[in-house]
Automatic annotation (TrEMBL):
It holds the Pfam family Cytochrom_C. This is C-type cytochrome. The keyword Secreted does not apply. Residues 41-131 form the Cytochrome c domain. One of its GO terms (molecular function) is electron transfer activity. The keyword Chaperone does not apply. It comes from Aquimarina algicola. Keywords: Heme, Iron, Metal-binding. It comes from the Bacteria.
Amino acid sequence: MQKIAIIFTALAFLTISCQSEKKEKEDKGGIKIGTKKEEVSAFDTGKTIFNGKGKCYTCHKIQQKSIGPGVVEIVKIYQEQNADLVAFLKQEAEPIVDPENYAVMKTNFAVIKNFSDEELKAIETYMIAAGEGKTE
């Protein structure tokens, strides 16, 4: 009978100690080990799209005109005229920068039309920041 009591007591202590260790791991600021989630800024997302799947960089350089107007010029004109760059990218607004070359840009809307509003807004965020000199 004494052996059963000792075994029962040992099991009780073991159960209690395992539960408190489990709680300590869960209580570390509400973060569970192995569930790291990185947030990516709109600037970084926009930069990735601009230089990646959007292929905007092929025609638009930051500081100078290339095939299309430079990002600095685009941002300056859109801000001066209080215009909506995202609306233009969605083809909901007329071109206001270099409109005579709109036909060239129009061919790229095949790529852009599949972008989400969030992606288009991220491109705008990147362009505004890059137009103001931010690179990282």
